[in-house]
Design brief:
Number of strands: 4
Strand order of the largest sheet: 1-2-4-3
Oligomer: single chain
Structural class: alpha+beta
Shape: globular
CATH class of one domain: Alpha Beta
Radius of gyration: 16 Å
Distance between the termini: 26 Å
Largest sheet: 4 strands, antiparallel
Number of helices: 3
Strand content: 15-25%
CATH superfamily of one domain: Transcriptional coactivator/pterin dehydratase
Length: 129
């Protein structure tokens, strides 16, 4: 296994370091064509818009903006630090925040007051994996 060290926020990771980080920290994300990316499947247009708006809010708050591929029932998020011309700590940090927020399922955590979306196709908007 390739070892990696955490770098400064604008230092570029090598492809081997990127693959190791993804495997350890973001196993649903992949490294392809210079980007780290993740495809989120939704139950339709309404869910897709909710995902896009959530990612948009997080990206704007972080001031680090991904490329998005948006379709009826999925959103692909692609991250790369354009200024640094590669994958940096900023990309990993935003990917982790996106993953944490989008994959949160209230009914499956310690916060019992929030039961989560009913198990009914009329209300499901994101396909959790």
């Amino acid at each position: 296994m390739t070892q990696w060290r955490r770098k400064g926020k604008d230092e570029v990771y090598t492809p081997e370091e990127i693959e190791a980080r993804l495997k350890a920290e973001l196993p649903k994300w992949t490294f392809e064509d210079g980007w780290i990316r993740r495809k989120y499947k939704t139950s339709g247009w309404k869910g897709t818009l909710m995902v896009v708006n959530t990612v948009g809010h997080l990206a704007e708050a972080a001031w680090h903006h991904p490329d998005l591929n948006v379709s009826y029932a999925f959103v692909t998020v692609k991250l790369m630090n354009h200024a640094a011309k590669g994958i940096t700590e900023k990309d990993f940090a935003l990917a982790k925040k996106i993953e944490e927020v989008l994959m949160w399922q209230p009914g499956q955590d310690a916060e019992a007051a929030l039961e989560g979306t009913p198990d009914d196709p009329r209300f499901k908007y994101l396909k959790y994996d």
